[in-house]
Amino acid sequence: MSHVGRPPPCASPCGRPTFPVHADLTTLTVVPNRNLSADLADGRAVTLSRIGEFVSVKGVFTRVPDVAEGFELRAEYGEEQPPVFMRVVAPGNARRSIPAGTFTARCLGKMTGWREETREVTLEAIAIFW
Hints:
The chain is mainly beta. Helix content is 5%, strand content 45%.
């Protein structure tokens, strides 16, 4: 089975394949996968920090300098004041290949929480494409 143009499916708890939720921070759109669609069927709203599925996030990011381990990216989104940010953290040493300044990237990973004090939702990335 080919998955050209999209990441391969991940196993859901029931064993059926499921694709990631797609979020675009530049257009403020979210395309739910099958599991999230079922959760939204009752009319509830779900924030990014509460999505338990794999999420593919597209946004305009900058690298956070001087991170002790791995690397960290940050993107502002929405029009709230004070602003809200997506924080992407990843292990590894890709620092030299990360573009300077701002750049568009797609990050695939799991949402791991919300930091009220910095107004950041955090994504633990398993893959980053720029």
